[in-house]
């Protein structure tokens, strides 16, 4: 796969780097139109056909009352009105935000720590990386069973350990107040490996010369981390944060399997409405509310990235 | 080079979508004038696939022009798949429905009125009550295929060790409670009783104490009553006393099944579908009709076969539904494998069920049919079941009083009916 | 000196302890799968069960047309991964390197496709597939995974990290965008490509709701569908379910180990960094 150019081209590139950059303006704004089309169509067409068209379908559905098995009835914005006046909607959104607020800091800090540790040369590094990645690929059915056992209020390991230091453990997922923390804990644990893998790829893209130069300048480990690693890792961090938020808003499997009826988030409600309660129109309306919400959050992040994300 | 790959890719995607139209409209008749009939089921997999195969083979032998294609899905996702295929206009020709969901489908116009394809179909083979359960607006929209009942399982050895007389059909709640308290030995992790706190147990115990779930006109809930409080209290009071709490169960999968199988549960309210799994346990056990309070009432779960309103093979669908539900082959296969019971009227056929030596008191299964409690059914069934179960769980965990729980459950159910 | 050693020892200790915690559930699944029927799921778990054996695996092979299912999952996973890598890398290149009007807006549209929850998409998508006559086909299984906005985003970030000087120099040398894409950018983002290959494969491999709905014939069944059929209405044979779960992890693990090796090797080989 490695062509001869792979090794030679960049070298010439480095040498030629100071040369005058090409002007993108030559030939007008649409200069690259043909090339852009060729590069984009292979993904744009399938996305259009298999995601955007169904999305529009759900927008249409959201304006109807529909139980999937009989004909649709037009209700206009009725579903949206009903949702906005239903306290359950607020609960679901609140729980979803709660999940994100707990999950994101945990999983990012943990993943970053792991990536930094496992980026150093050490014996058994590949094996360790593989082990930390195992939970990511193990199904939620298995993981949830395991965590329910660990967090078993009566005989679980976690409450036993808490008991040793004199704390009486909570009811965890059997208690509506503690169901969300239980889900957060299990989710962060499961996804640590995901964040680690992304950040490892980012760390490996940081040129070693930078670190070495800083070392020569006598920078401390903390300074190097703060001034070099973190800024150069910012594109990966940005990716992790944006994706974790998008996924976090759609948290579903773990809530359903672990917390059952003790915690309702937006997508568990969407699933119930569509497939259990015969209210597909309502579910679609709720999805579009969620969509609008996530879109705004993501747009804000994209705006804000200019201030903290550094690209090469 | 890459340009070529891309062009091919784009072309393939376009071609695949453009050229493949029409394949879904292909005629249902396969090669040699054979009719392909699709049947979708939740009760066969994973344990009874072979039994269903045997029934299918017998049917195809008797009807050489029909080819039955079976599709299975796990119960949890069965209705997800069924609804989507109905929404997309690709409903299977025939499919399984349970009693609780039947009304939703029949009322929605998704089912074929079997009267229109039955010809002079003779229905004397069915137990009349079963057959009537699947009528809607006077039309037969499905044929009952199987049923099962809930009985009281008990561990004979534990009763003997504790020196307590085993349960009889005359037992009441009070007898059950007294025995359960004596049998519970928390140190040895032995529990006296296990009855899930949920909708299905509640409507039944409600009936056992003379209450009604819905008002006679079906337009309001009626369970927030003294009888309702009594029934809910009966269920909830067991938790933590003679039965493990939710925290102690701790989300262990199939906890109660394993507890009973390991000989640490004296009495267990469960369905006769558990018979097969209990064949080899190392202790003596038997069953008895569930104790009542002021009345006897046993839960019955019914499954039926319906045909899609859009099927092009109505006659074949009827033939299959009838064969699957009432033929001797089907009945005998079910009885031999303890795959629930066939809803047939022929007592000779059912007698075979009693020959199986375990459990000894199989007669209790038929006795339980003498006073059955069918679940209340409304259009928004699933929401109702979820709401009632949720409120009862709150009460069982001690987060709400029984009165509060019933009050808010009744409010929710009324809202669903309104 | 002493401090450095202490640091290294504590680092090893930390990482190993963490690894043990991460391994626990998987080890538990393996043990459960080797434990015959009733002994399963004891609380606390019995890590030295009697009569351990491969019965569950044998039963798994008997209950399911296992090799057929595995073959389906593998080939669909591989096809979907290859397609996603290709379509995503190309789009990522356009978004990172080709200026065109509305680039930001279009990228937002791509991202937006990730924001709609799957449960509401499957019904319209099913109806669309039905209209196109694609219900119950391999193509329908594959279709939603041909393109991945997740991949486009991941790879765009990776390409953005590649110093622009590299390809600008190549432009001066007279190279077109296809050459730059193929010979400069792709080799430089190999760690990201390898990472995405794992996630792309995983997405297809674990996909459940869509296959459940679109597939009717057993011959198209994929692994998650097959494993789901092991759950009965009333009882489940957990040892068999665990055996299936263990087996389903193995291919991704192999892919991961392979991809990681490849990443490290590629970074070392190019001698770039």
UniProtKB/TrEMBL annotation, chain A:
Residues that span the membrane, as ranges: 32-53, 97-118, 130-150, 178-201, 232-252, 280-300
Membrane topology: Multi-pass membrane protein
Ranges for domain ABC transmembrane type-1: 93-301
Gene Ontology cellular-component terms listed: plasma membrane
Subcellular localization, as worded in the UniProt entry: Cell membrane
Pfam family, one: BPD_transp_1
Lineage top rank: taxon: Bacteria
One annotated GO biological process: transmembrane transport
UniProt-annotated stretches for the region Disordered: 1-27
Keyword Transport in annotation: yes
Polar residues bias spans: 1-10
Tagged with keyword Thylakoid: no
Xref: InterPro entries: ABC_transporter_permease (IPR051393), MetI-like (IPR000515), MetI-like_sf (IPR035906)
Keywords: Cell membrane, Membrane, Sugar transport, Transmembrane, Transmembrane helix, Transport
Family the UniProt entry places it in: Belongs to the binding-protein-dependent transport system permease family.
PANTHER family per UniProt: ABC TRANSPORTER PERMEASE PROTEIN, INNER MEMBRANE ABC TRANSPORTER PERMEASE PROTEIN YCJO
Protein name per the record: Multiple sugar transport system permease protein
Native organism: Nonomuraea endophytica
Lineage: Bacteria, Bacillati, Actinomycetota, Actinomycetes, Streptosporangiales
TrEMBL record, chain B:
Keywords assigned: Cell membrane, Lipoprotein, Membrane, Palmitate, Signal, Sugar transport, Transport
InterPro entries tied to this protein: Bact_solute-bd_prot1 (IPR050490), SBP (IPR006059), SBP_1_CS (IPR006061)
Cleavable signal peptide: 1-26
GO terms under biological process: transmembrane transport
Pfam family, one: SBP_bac_1
Gene3D superfamilies: Periplasmic binding protein-like II (3.40.190.10)
Transmembrane regions: none
PANTHER family for this protein: ARABINOSE-BINDING PROTEIN-RELATED, POLYGALACTURONAN_RHAMNOGALACTURONAN-BINDING PROTEIN YTCQ
Family statement drawn from the similarity comment of this UniProt entry: Belongs to the bacterial solute-binding protein 1 family.
Name listed for the protein in its UniProt record: Multiple sugar transport system substrate-binding protein
TrEMBL record, chain C:
Pfam families named among the record's database cross-references: BPD_transp_1
Keyword Transmembrane recorded: yes
Biological process terms in GO annotation: transmembrane transport
Organism lineage: Bacteria, Bacillati, Actinomycetota, Actinomycetes, Streptosporangiales
Domain ABC transmembrane type-1: 70-259
Localization annotation: Cell membrane
Protein's name according to its UniProt entry: Multiple sugar transport system permease protein
Transmembrane intervals: 12-31, 74-95, 107-127, 139-159, 180-202, 240-259
Keyword rRNA processing: no
Organism: Nonomuraea endophytica
Top-level taxonomic group: Bacteria
A cellular component annotation (GO) from this entry: plasma membrane
């Amino acid at each position: 796969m490695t062509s001869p150019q792979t090794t030679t081209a960049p070298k010439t590139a480095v040498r030629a780097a100071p040369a005058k950059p090409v002007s993108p303006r030559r030939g007008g704004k649409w200069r690259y139109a043909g090339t852009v089309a060729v590069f984009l169509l292979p993904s744009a067409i399938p996305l259009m056909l298999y995601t955007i068209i169904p999305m529009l379908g759900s927008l249409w559905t959201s304006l109807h009352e529909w139980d999937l098995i009989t004909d649709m009835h037009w209700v206009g914005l009725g579903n949206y009105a009903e949702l906005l006046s239903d306290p359950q909607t607020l609960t679901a959104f609140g729980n979803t935000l709660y999940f994100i607020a707990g999950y994101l800091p945990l999983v990012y800090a943990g993943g970053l720590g792991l990536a930094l540790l496992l980026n150093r040369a050490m014996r058994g590094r590949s094996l360790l990386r593989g082990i930390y990645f195992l939970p990511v690929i193990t199904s939620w059915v298995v993981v949830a069973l395991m965590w329910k056992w660990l967090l078993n209020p009566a005989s679980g390991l976690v409450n036993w350990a808490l008991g040793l230091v004199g704390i009486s453990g909570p009811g965890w997922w059997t208690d509506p107040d503690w169901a969300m923390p239980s889900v957060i804990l299990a989710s962060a644990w499961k996804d640590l490996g995901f964040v680690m893998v992304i950040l490892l790829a980012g760390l490996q893209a940081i040129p070693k010369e930078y670190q070495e130069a800083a070392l020569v300048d006598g920078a401390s480990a903390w300074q190097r981390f703060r001034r070099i690693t973190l800024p150069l890792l910012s594109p990966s961090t940005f990716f992790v944060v944006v994706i974790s938020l998008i996924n976090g808003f759609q948290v579903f499997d773990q809530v359903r399997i672990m917390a059952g009826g003790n915690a309702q988030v937006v997508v568990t409600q969407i699933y119930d409405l569509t497939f259990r309660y015969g209210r597909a129109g309502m579910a679609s309306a709720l999805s579009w509310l969620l969509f609008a919400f996530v879109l705004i959050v993501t747009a804000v992040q994209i705006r804000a990235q200019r201030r903290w994300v550094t690209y090469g | 080079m890459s340009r070529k790959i891309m062009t091919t890719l784009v072309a393939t995607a376009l071609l695949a979508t453009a050229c493949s139209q029409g394949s879904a409209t292909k005629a249902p008749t396969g090669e040699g004038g054979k009719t392909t009939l699709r049947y979708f089921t939740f009760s066969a997999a994973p344990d009874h696939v072979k039994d269903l195969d045997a029934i299918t083979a017998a049917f195809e032998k008797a009807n050489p022009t029909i080819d039955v294609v079976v599709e299975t899905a796990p119960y949890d996702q069965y209705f997800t798949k069924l609804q989507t295929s109905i929404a997309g206009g690709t409903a299977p020709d025939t499919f399984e429905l349970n009693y609780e969901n039947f009304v939703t489908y029949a009322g929605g116009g998704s089912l074929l009125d079997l009267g229109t394809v039955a010809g002079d179909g003779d229905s004397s083979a069915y137990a009349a009550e079963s057959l009537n359960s699947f009528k809607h607006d006077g039309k037969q929209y499905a044929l009952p295929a199987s049923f099962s009942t809930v009985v009281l399982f008990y561990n004979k050895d534990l009763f003997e060790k504790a020196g307590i007389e085993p349960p009889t059909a005359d037992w009441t709640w009070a007898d059950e409670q007294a025995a359960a308290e004596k049998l519970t030995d928390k140190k040895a992790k032995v529990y006296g009783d296990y009855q899930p706190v949920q909708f299905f147990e509640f409507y039944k115990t409600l009936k056992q104490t003379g209450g009604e779930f819905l008002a006679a006109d079906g337009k309001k809930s009626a369970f927030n009553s003294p009888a309702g409080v009594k029934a809910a209290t009966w269920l909830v009071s067991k938790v933590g006393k003679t039965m493990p709490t939710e925290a102690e169960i701790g989300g262990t999968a199939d906890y109660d099944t394993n507890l009973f199988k390991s000989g640490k549960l004296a009495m267990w309210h469960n369905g006769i579908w558990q018979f097969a799994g209990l064949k080899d346990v190392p202790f003596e056990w038997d069953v008895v009709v569930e104790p009542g309070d002021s009345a006897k009432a046993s839960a019955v779960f019914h499954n039926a076969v319906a045909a899609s309103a859009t099927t092009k093979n109505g006659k074949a669908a009827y033939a299959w539904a009838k064969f699957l539900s009432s033929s001797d082959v089907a009945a005998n296969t079910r009885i031999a494998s303890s795959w629930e019971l066939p809803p047939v009227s022929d007592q000779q056929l059912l007698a075979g069920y009693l020959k199986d030596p375990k459990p000894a008191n199989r007669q209790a299964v038929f006795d339980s049919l003498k006073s059955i409690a069918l679940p209340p059914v409304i259009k928004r069934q699933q929401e109702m079941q979820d709401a009632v179960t949720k409120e009862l769980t709150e009460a069982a965990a001690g987060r709400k009083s029984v009165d509060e729980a019933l009050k808010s459950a009744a409010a929710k159910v009324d809202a669903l009916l309104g | 000196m002493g401090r450095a050693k202490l640091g290294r020892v504590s680092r090893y200790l930390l990482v190993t302890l963490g690894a043990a915690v991460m391994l626990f559930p998987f080890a538990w699944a393996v043990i459960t799968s080797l434990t015959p029927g009733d002994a399963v799921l004891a609380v606390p778990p019995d890590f030295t069960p009697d009569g351990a054996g491969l019965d569950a695996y044998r039963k798994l092979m008997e209950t399911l047309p296992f090799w057929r299912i595995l073959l389906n999952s593998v080939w669909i996973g591989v096809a979907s991964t290859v397609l996603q890598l290709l379509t995503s890398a190309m789009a990522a290149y356009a978004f990172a390197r080709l200026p065109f009007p509305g680039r930001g807006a279009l990228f937002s549209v791509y991202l937006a496709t990730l924001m709609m929850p799957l449960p509401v998409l499957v019904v319209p998508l099913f109806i669309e597939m039905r209209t196109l006559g694609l219900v119950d086909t391999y193509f329908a299984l594959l279709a939603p995974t041909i393109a991945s906005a997740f991949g486009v985003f991941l790879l765009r970030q990776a390409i953005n990290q590649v110093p622009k000087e590299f390809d600008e120099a190549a432009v001066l040398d007279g190279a077109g965008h296809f050459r730059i894409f193929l010979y400069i950018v792709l080799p430089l983002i190999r760690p990201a490509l390898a990472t995405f290959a794992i996630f792309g494969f995983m997405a297809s491999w674990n996909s459940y709701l869509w296959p459940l709905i679109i597939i009717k014939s057993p011959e198209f069944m994929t692994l998650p569908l097959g494993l789901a059929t092991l759950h009965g209405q009333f009882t489940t044979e957990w040892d068999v379910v665990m055996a299936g779960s263990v087996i389903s992890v193995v291919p991704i693990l192999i892919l991961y180990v392979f991809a990681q090796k490849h990443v490290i090797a590629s970074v070392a080989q190019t001698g770039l960094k």
